[in-house]
What we know:
The chain has helices spanning 11-22, 55-65, 79-85, 98-105, 107-116, 220-233, 269-278; strands spanning 2-6, 26-31, 43-46, 70-72, 124-125, 137-141, 151-153, 166-170, 176-177, 180-183, 190-193, 195-200, 208-213, 237-245, 251-257. With 296 residues, it is an alpha+beta fold. The longest helix is centred in the last third of the chain and has 14 residues, at 220-233.
Amino acid sequence: xxxxxxxxxxxxxxxxxxxxxxxxxxxxxxxxxxxxxxxxxxxxxxxxxxxxxxxxxxxxxxxxxxxxxxxxxxxxxxxxxxxxxxxxxxxxxxxxxxxxxxxxxxxxxxxxxxxxxxxxxxxxxxxxxxxxxxxxxxxxxxxxxxxxxxxxxxxxxxxxxxxxxxxxxxxxxxxxxxxxxxxxxxxxxxxxxxxxxxxxxxxxxxxxxxxxxxxxxxxxxxxxxxxxxxxxxxxxxxxxxxxxxxxxxxxxxxxxxxxxxxxxxxxxxxxxxxxxxxxxxxxxxxxxxxxxxxxx
Length: 296
């Protein structure tokens, strides 16, 4: 089995590379700059940025020239283009259909979609509709990677200048989670592993600095919401979410990433599920599906 992993040096790519290497799977890593993670894989190739017109031709050529069996994109910025091009890249690609990927890529569209499905989200506004905002609230880019650009506006801060590229959301002050979800493209069944973020890089917001895997049934409302959000958007395959509790304890969806996340090593079932569907001849390890919303 030969698998291309994009964004090898990023948090998601590195976590995935370590898991694949531990399984003895041949990884062809690619990134825009050299990375220490390349030492974990037998092949590494420098490639263009996700916003470069040469990116998709590069992936198609790499898949053909390396005789790759599978492509796993992990770079947030490349997902919409890769999803659209997946049928013609010449290699099976672990990604959702282009429409759902586009919705998950944009935090405003994500909020609209989940709200239409009756799922809980923080109150969300954009430029010209944010007059309701009272500290504390969060300002973040509609399109961004992970926690980059997220700003918590508290009582001592002023609302920064907004553009149409920003969203404003009520701040959810409770526990934050990073559910790891796999929804089968073949059966539609969904499995969820709930991770609790025990430390955040920016203190009260941002990416996880540490996570703890919760036992099955420990946060069933979070697991059920994660599964419902993935299904409402129409995503399949591995999905990384951020869910946080409001002051009254209700969980709300903050964002949805249509790819493996930085914490996938804490939920090896996701990779096992990918290999089970795309490489059924490999030994199955840990692939057990629960019903929608269940927790492993």
